[in-house]
Design brief:
The chain has helices spanning 46-60, 95-113, 119-124, 126-136, 147-159, 168-184, and strands at 2-6, 9-13, 23-28, 33-38, 67-70, 73-80, 83-90, 137-138, 141-142. By secondary structure, the chain is of the alpha+beta class. The chain starts with a strand and ends with a helix.
Length: 185
């Protein structure tokens, strides 16, 4: 970043960057973390992350606005029943870009859960949440903003998941099938 002096006014120019998103958070109605993915080292320790999450929740959970500036960061957020969704970027980041990520995540989850986005339904489909977030943002770079595409890709990835990424229930079901077929031989 460079600063130019123009008649006692400082203008700071930021280099353009694809690294738009610093974090994506989902907190419950008590401000406790359900999901958090940080894409840089602004808050390197879990203790610092949790303190930031409590601060952000305390500043936003009673307001109707959608954008906040907090600790030098731009925060866009949305609530649904008993959940609070946050997308965080730097202070100079375009709020519309961050809001696009937030809306894509929320709309994708709405379609995947086929009902209201609430804590219980989200906890039952955490693997879908992880896949959706990975489809939308990678390393802070926005990859997708169309919820239809995200849902489609999550469905495709869910059908053909390698063994290392399968859930415990999928592995157990596969093992049961293999045992059943080995006994029937």
């Amino acid at each position: 970043a460079r600063a130019f002096r123009t008649e006692d006014v400082f203008i700071s120019l930021q280099e353009p960057s694809l690294y738009t998103v610093k974090a994506i958070l989902i907190l419950d109605n008590d401000g406790d973390r359900l999901f958090a993915k940080y894409y840089d080292d602004t808050y390197p320790s879990v203790k610092e992350q949790k303190a930031f999450e409590k601060n952000i929740f305390n500043k936003t959970h009673r307001t109707d606005s959608e954008i906040a500036l907090l600790e030098g960061l731009t925060v866009v957020y949305k609530s649904s029943i008993d959940l609070y969704f946050y997308v965080i970027g730097s202070s100079y980041e375009n709020e519309l870009m961050l809001m696009t990520v937030l809306n894509c995540l929320f709309d994708s989850l709405s379609q995947m859960l086929r009902k209201n986005v609430e804590k219980r339904a989200l906890l039952e489909n955490m693997e879908g949440l992880f896949l959706a977030v990975d489809e939308i943002v990678d390393g802070g770079v926005i990859l997708e903003s169309d919820p239809q595409q995200v849902v489609h890709r999550v469905a495709l990835r869910g059908e053909d998941v390698p063994l290392t990424e399968q859930t415990v229930s999928q592995v157990l079901q596969s093992a049961k099938e293999q045992i059943k077929w080995s006994l029937l031989r």
